[in-house]
């Protein structure tokens, strides 16, 4: 999921910037996020590919999904003065409510995997029977 999300933003970077500018963020923040989000998404992918950093990848995934999910909840609850455009790629065909369900599923999955990985690592270190 993170690989697809990052590559979609990088491969059509002009669209990525345009979509960020259509969000509720100030322009300076939209510009920063246009670069930062795909970099963070790729960093999460790298962390998830290595055994020693797997737990950190799950934690990063959970953190990023939490931020995105809160943003979607605020959007769906009409917290902002306007509803911004949705994301690009496959997700652009989802409504904001469907996007919330999608993100919630992957957030729960990330947190479950993080919990499982931390238990596994504690067991391997002999700290849990």
UniProtKB/TrEMBL annotation:
InterPro entries, per the entry = Methylamine_util_MauE
Q: Which residue ranges traverse the bilayer? A: 32-50, 62-80, 100-118
- Where in the cell does this protein reside? Membrane
Which terms are listed as keywords in the entry?
Membrane, Transmembrane, Transmembrane helix
* CC terms in the record's Gene Ontology section: membrane
The membrane topology of this protein is: Multi-pass membrane protein
The Gene Ontology biological process annotation of the record reads: methylamine metabolic process
The principal location of this protein is: membrane
Report the residue ranges that make up the Methylamine utilisation protein MauE domain in this protein.
1-114
Keyword Transmembrane helix among UniProt keywords? yes
The record's section on Pfam families has: MauE (PF07291)
- The molecule here is called Methylamine utilisation protein MauE domain-containing protein
